[in-house]
Write a structure and sequence with these properties.
mainly alpha, about 0% strand
Length: about 280
Amino acid sequence: MSAAQELVKRFNSLRTLPHVAIRLTKLMADDNTTVKDFEDVIKTDPTLVLRLLKVVNSPYFGLRQRVDSISRAVVFIGLKGLRRMVVTEALREVFSGGEDNQVFSRKNLWVHSAAVAICSQMISERIFGIQGDNAYLCGILHDVGLIVEDQVDHHHFVEVCKSLGAQDSLPDVERSFMGTDHCSVGSVLAEDWKIPHEVRSAIRRHHRSMEDVEPSSLTGIIQMAEYLVSKMNYPALSGIKSQLSAPLAAHMKENLQEYKTIARDFPEEMNKAKEIYES
């Protein structure tokens, strides 16, 4: 068993994906699932019902008429949107608790993850014309490995944070203290949660500097989103500088005006989507 798998195993012994979320992820993987099947599962969790109706009636979806039934909400939000909401709800629980300190804040990491999710979706849809649900999902999950490390091996995780310099590679420092890094841990956890392979792969590679990375790939999109949100003061950890590989830097330079527009519009998009990630 790898160090990443061992951390996830220990994490799952402390916290597991809620029972309803497990049932929903299984339904999402079944092509024969009906809207009625989703409704039957969702209605067993009153908190999830309230969150689903709150999200689908939020400014993010911009519906003219209020939606009051679970089945209609599922139809409006769509399968990918439902997966995104279920994962976000599960992460809200995972990110809760713990004490913030000078080197690490779970609240700041949650806001960073939400920011990367929103920015990734914007880049995917506006720059490349690609439907943005997987980009959002990858963004909200990309740093979940840090939470696993914090909860399962808190002492060494704090040492990682204290030792991290502005020019250091976070995964390199993690591996020196913990034998693995949050990219690998997050990918293993995402596999347990039945997250699509493309998303898991991007989580695993989101800190790698690659000379052959395609800007339109999910890995490229996540790395550019993380770079942008760090410039807008939404860091995962204080003091970290986000770097871009040469192909991504060249692409952003060639499309500078489009990315400036995304940066300009980002605060409004973040505000529109707050029902999805705020408590």
